[in-house]
Amino acid sequence: MFQQIKEKSPLIHCITNHVVSNFQANGLLAIGASPIMGEAHEEAAELAALSQAVSLNIGTLHAESLKSMLIAGKKANQLGIPVVLDPVGAGVSKFRIEAVREILGRVDVNVLRCNAGELAAIAGEQWQSKGVDAGEGLLDIKKLAVSTAKKLGLLVAVTGATDIITDGKSVSKIPFGNPMMTSITGTGCLLSSVVAAGLAVSTNNPMKTVEDVFRFYAIVGERASRNAALSGDFQVAFLNQLASLTDREVTQRISLQEETV
Amino acid sequence: MFQQIKEKSPLIHCITNHVVSNFQANGLLAIGASPIMGEAHEEAAELAALSQAVSLNIGTLHAESLKSMLIAGKKANQLGIPVVLDPVGAGVSKFRIEAVREILGRVDVNVLRCNAGELAAIAGEQWQSKGVDAGEGLLDIKKLAVSTAKKLGLLVAVTGATDIITDGKSVSKIPFGNPMMTSITGTGCLLSSVVAAGLAVSTNNPMKTVEDVFRFYAIVGERASRNAALSGDFQVAFLNQLASLTDREVTQRISLQEETV
Amino acid sequence: MFQQIKEKSPLIHCITNHVVSNFQANGLLAIGASPIMGEAHEEAAELAALSQAVSLNIGTLHAESLKSMLIAGKKANQLGIPVVLDPVGAGVSKFRIEAVREILGRVDVNVLRCNAGELAAIAGEQWQSKGVDAGEGLLDIKKLAVSTAKKLGLLVAVTGATDIITDGKSVSKIPFGNPMMTSITGTGCLLSSVVAAGLAVSTNNPMKTVEDVFRFYAIVGERASRNAALSGDFQVAFLNQLASLTDREVTQRISLQEETV
Question: Where along this sequence does the record place binding of substrate (chains A, B, C) (predicted)?
């Protein structure tokens, strides 16, 4: 799939936050995709229509960008262009959770890429984002991901020590989360738009596409962390690894644990 | 204190400019703090209430973010959460100086972290930002810092070749300014939010907290500059040093010159 | 000229997109210039008036920043301050092309710094941005650049494998485009503001100034690519090279192919 991204260089319309926009654009370029990052509502429909996937991220959402996300998302739906939503900090404010609900209500989102706390907020569950025991929380998150995927009719892809991907029927776990991934900002945001790039070139089996992206990304993180134990180096190493990893290396390296609910 | 930041991982609500937001977020993560960077006025009060400190920066201020800063600052005041203001370029426009005056008038700011030109603008003094002689200017800046701290009832922390920190009564000087610190954008902005992170975990003696942060930061800059004489490398090295410096090293390395006004 | 930038440290008012603003600010600092990046319309005229050049970039344009660009541009015109326009993605939406036309109609832009697709959009020509054969397209782009420069009465500077600079009468070609330059976001945007910095210190012969900047930039790219084959490293190496290259090295290294139309 990553070979196809390099060959087709899909245009990814990202409406994203200003904290990670540079890293996200460089990450997409590193894998061979092509980012467009306009966020004015006046051009949202046109940019979505030009693109092969739309990647929405609410990290520094405001009223204008929410409007643009709704327009871009609806245009993408009309044209059959995949839409990925990254509900950054969904639970931190009424504004965010209502925005996420509005987007999910008015746009057919293909993949909801989030962390455990964001998933819990979207599902309306209580969640303590601090001091969470990963082992204990895992089962709940799996169930929550499955029920959310079923209820909303989309793929839910939750990152953590073990990533969980589900379409509401089957569940894949990818146990390669690297703690360095959370040492810099934007690895989750970039992952969401790499998922969008994957869907842009590979639509037959979205669940498998998301799994492949997550495996790839886990290896990128692992490799980057080997040569870069500090956050300045890690950001650089991460982009380098994104630019150099090939499909074959991914296939050789990863075995996926899959199970049925 | 930095050990405490790593342990408590305080949430810092930053309303900041888009030029430095990535660097600022990564810098906060590097020391173990946790940045939230929403800037919509709809969520400003909630984000402030969730946080352990609020860090305001007017580098790319506009009407909406000013509104959010006022809301976040006032909510922080109600809840006893410390507020740091970085009045970037306070003197460059009427819009900025009026915004700074409005924030200072309506929010109890705990620390004003600025440079000499910004301090002069806030104090209503003439200041030539180009060709300033550091030695000659120093006394004036010290006096200005003291009178501003007294007048506004807050800590004033001015960076330069020698940093000056004052509560209007005592003055600390930290003579470790490194010229490489001004070779990249955002070191001052990040410092302001590291001050916020310090205040988030250590509230007993704010003056000492700010001093400790400034000493720490000076050593980070000095160390980073040793292995990185060019600006690309320096940005990376700076984040690396932020991530690796410990309290003990700071204590061992720095002696502070302190004097009474 | 770059020696002069280091000595005079011209203030460059950049109204630019949030994807590249950090890279653009650090790049300007690396060459010794001083960026100001406010984008509120309330301060646009004052910031332009303080500056030695104005650099406009529509990469994440919205209604507010367009308003600011018009105000800053007109103020710069009144005061004889040079204005550079980077019409990022001019052809991707009605909003962008209309904004570009409005800016070009109401502001005397000194240099239009763009790529082939953006030039074609501004000239109202069809252009396929994908699969373009550089050799074949070259002649057309040269003609288009010349006719656009004539029609609009400004310098057109088009980057590509071979860069083209024209005032509508003579044409310079700089054949040093490095493919790594497009592997990261923002090299074009930064180039536009480096052109602004060049014009800020050297106004006698704008065409030669732009050529000198382009040659310098091409060497920066070539040098950076030698030690950095992956995009993470390249971004760092590029800033390092910007900070270290001297005028003398540029003069020694480059011969310019020039021809008359």
Answer: 37, 186
Q: From residue B18, how far is each of A20, B59, B187, C33, C230 by CA, in Å?
A: 10, 8, 14, 19, 25
CA A147/CA A151 separation, integer angstroms:
6
**Are the CB atoms for A230 and B244 separated by under 8 Å?**
yes
3-state SS, residue A53: strand
Q: Are A228 and A184 in contact (CB under 8 A)?
A: no
ipTM score for this prediction: 0.93
CATH tag for B2-260 (out of 3.30.70.860, 3.40.1190.20, 3.30.40.230, 3.30.300.30): 3.40.1190.20
User: Are A60 and B47 a contacting pair at CB < 8 A?
Assistant: no
Provide CB contacts within 8 A for A50, sequence distance 6+: A11, A13, A36, C92
Contact at CB, A46 and C186, closer than 8 angstroms: no
43-72 of A, contacting C, C-beta below 8 A? 43, 46-47, 50, 64
pLDDT per residue, tens digit, chain C (261 aa), is 899 999 999 999 999 999 999 999 999 999 999 999 999 999 999 999 999 999 999 999 999 999 999 999 999 999 999 999 999 999 999 999 999 999 999 999 999 999 999 999 999 876 655 433 344 455 589 999 999 999 999 999 999 989 999 999 999 999 877 889 999 999 999 999 999 999 999 989 999 999 999 999 999 999 999 989 999 999 999 999 999 987 677 766 655 444 443
Q: B179, B162, B180: which is closest to B171 by C-alpha?
A: B162
Q: Which of residues 106-165 of A touch C (CB under 8 A)?
A: none
pLDDT digits (tens, 9 = 90+) for A65-108: 999 999 999 999 999 999 999 999 999 999 999 999 999 999 99
Each residue of A168-225: pLDDT tens digit?
999 999 987 788 999 999 999 999 999 999 999 998 999 999 999 999 999 999 999 9
Q: Does C19 touch chain A (CB under 8 A)?
A: yes
Which of chain C's residues have a Cβ under 8 Å away from the Cβ of A64? 62
Place of tokens 């869907």: A199
Dmax over CA atoms of chain C, in Å, equals 46
Token pair 């950090």 in the structure block, residue:
C22
